[in-house]
């Protein structure tokens, strides 16, 4: 994870050997963050908007288009939706596709392995318990 400060793009370049990120997630909902998050994205990258902003957003179309980007958005759920999911989550057969579970403090170390077919990775789970 990289904190979005003045040196963020340099930090992402350092981590990715100047390739930028293949996937950028925004969970902030902050208008500025949502509009500029694609700056951290590599050619062919995915920009996943999880954070929600009720206002209009403006993107540099040329920059997104030139990178051959994919923009993905989460759906807007209500409190009732989340309460229902919490109630039925234990019935969901995650063991059929979640092959590895790691704490968030170790997830970066596993990314390369998860890209290798021989690890059997389909969907991987990151836990945020302290």
Describe this structure in words.
By secondary structure, this protein is an alpha/beta fold. Helices cover about 30% and strands about 25% of the residues. The protein has helices at about 10-15, 30-35, 60-65, 80-90, 105-115, and strands at about 20-25, 40-50, 70-75, 100-105, 125. The strands form two sheets. Strands 1-2-3 form a three-stranded parallel beta sheet, with no helix packed on it. Helix 5 links the parallel strand 4 (about 100-105) and strand 5 (about 125). The two termini are about 15 Å apart.
Provide keyphrases for this structure:
single chain, 5 strands, 130 residues, alpha/beta, globular
Helix content: 25-40%
What is the count of β-strands? 5
Structural class: alpha/beta
- Name the strands of the widest sheet in spatial order: 1-2-3
Report low-confidence residues grouped into runs of 5 or more. Answer: none
> Average pLDDT value?
85
Largest sheet: 3 strands, parallel
Q: Name the overall outline.
A: globular
Q: Give the radius of gyration.
A: 17 Å
């Amino acid at each position: 994870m990289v904190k979005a400060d003045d040196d963020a793009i340099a930090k992402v370049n350092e981590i990715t050997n100047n390739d930028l990120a293949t996937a950028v997630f925004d969970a902030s909902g902050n208008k500025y963050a949502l509009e500029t998050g694609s700056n951290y994205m590599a050619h062919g990258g995915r920009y996943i908007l999880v954070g929600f902003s009720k206002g209009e957003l403006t993107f540099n179309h040329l920059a997104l288009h030139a990178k051959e980007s994919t923009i993905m958005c989460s759906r807007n759920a209500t409190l009732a939706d989340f309460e229902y999911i919490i109630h039925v989550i234990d019935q969901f057969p995650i063991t059929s596709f979640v092959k590895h579970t790691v704490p968030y403090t170790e997830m970066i170390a596993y990314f390369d392995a998860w890209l290798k077919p021989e690890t059997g990775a389909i969907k991987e789970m990151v836990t945020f318990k302290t």
